[in-house]
From TrEMBL:
Reactions catalysed according to its record: 2 GTP = 3',3'-c-di-GMP + 2 diphosphate
Highest taxon listed in the record's lineage: Bacteria
Organism in which the protein naturally occurs: Amphritea japonica ATCC BAA-1530
InterPro entries: Diguanylate_Cyclase, GGDEF_dom, Nucleotide_cyclase, PAS, PAS-like_dom_sf, Rev_trsase/Diguanyl_cyclase
Name assigned to this protein: diguanylate cyclase
Residues in GGDEF domain copies: 169-301
GO cellular component: plasma membrane
Enzyme nomenclature, EC number: 2.7.7.65
GO MF: diguanylate cyclase activity
Length: 301
């Protein structure tokens, strides 16, 4: 066997024993080689994949992100790495192959030598790592922001409601949720999404009053308990948050990524109201703000 053939055989063998998914892509994003043993992602057979282009498989934002990596990798002749969410709801090809759950992957592309420019692309399932990071969070603190979490918020809300009822005070609860974080993660990378959550956390922390209680709740949201705040004042506080967010951004490839939030505000209704009820009403309001297109505030008593 000629040296080049021996080398090619070794490379093929090496690719075939890797547990990660490996694709070789032409400069135009056409798949010219694929291997994916024991993969969590149902790519289909090599016959299904070879000859397809990235745009045949992925929806536009994801395709642009991947093709951008191919271009970057080849033009700079260096490794390109990105974390992306593969969601079967958005990727018809993977859905048709039986994928049900979305999955976080790390995509690494390296330029490969040859007469035709091509890249070797390794796709590694990192969902478990992401999940482990979240689950190892201390009981009452969120790992990313260091903020209190929902578990810490609920007893404080219960106590605040009890005090308000006893002394004839009032209180409100504001839920703030980043709009379209999934898309931001997909298009700009998980790190940019993380930066957005962190910047929002820091800004909310400096905006809130001393007596307010701030917590990270859900995946991409925050709650602020506002003691001695009626419905009208709650909406005004939400306006302040929305205005503050309009000045925030996260850096990405020399540009600034801006974002918006949707807000729901619930106010104590009186005797018989509970922390769960108030939280539920705030969630309904938040949902309404989302349904109306995001970057909105809705309130309920
Ligand atoms: N960067 C980053 N993303 C996260 C984190 N936690 C959850 N996410 C992602 O945030 C996304 C939230 O998605 P959705 O609940 O659909 O919300 P969304 O895309 O913001 O859509 P709307 O809320 O309807 O505007 C999911 O893709 C999560 O995987 C985190 O700590 N960092």
């Amino acid at each position: 066997m000629k040296n080049a053939n021996v080398l090619q055989t070794r490379i093929d063998a090496l690719l075939n024993v890797l547990s990660e998914d490996v694709l070789i892509l032409s400069q135009q994003g056409t798949i010219i080689f694929s291997t994916h043993t024991d993969s969590a992602i149902p790519w289909g057979s090599s016959d299904d994949l070879i000859g397809k282009t990235l745009s045949d498989i992925f929806p536009t934002p994801l395709f642009l992100s991947l093709q951008g990596m191919v271009d970057q990798c080849l033009s700079l002749n260096q490794l390109a790495v990105k974390e992306l969410l593969l969601d079967p709801q958005e990727i018809t090809y993977l859905r048709s192959q039986g994928m049900k759950e979305s999955c976080w992957v790390e995509v690494r592309m390296a330029p490969s030598a040859g007469s035709e420019p091509s890249v070797v692309c390794r796709i590694d399932d990192i969902s478990q790592r992401k999940r482990a990071q979240r689950e190892s969070s201390p009981i009452q603190r969120d790992l990313l922001t260091g903020m209190y979490n929902r578990r810490a918020l609920m007893p404080v809300l219960t106590q605040s409601i009890a005090q308000a009822l006893r002394y004839d005070w009032i209180c409100s609860l504001m839920l703030i949720n980043v709009d379209s974080l999934r898309l931001i993660n997909e298009e700009k990378g998980w790190d940019v999404g993380d930066q957005i959550i962190k910047r929002l956390a820091e800004s909310l922390n400096s905006l809130k009053r001393t007596a307010d209680f701030l917590a990270r709740v859900g995946e991409d949201g925050f709650a602020i308990l506002l003691p001695e705040t009626n419905a009208e004042q709650g909406i005004l506080a939400a306006e302040r948050v929305r205005n503050m967010v309009s000045d925030l951004s996260a850096p990405h490839s020399g540009t600034e990524v801006r974002f918006t939030v949707s807000i729901g505000v619930a106010t104590l209704t009186g005797e018989g109201d509970s922390a769960d009820d108030m939280y539920g009403r705030a969630e309904d309001c938040l949902q309404l703000s989302k349904q109306q297109g995001g970057n909105r505030i809705s309130g309920s008593e």
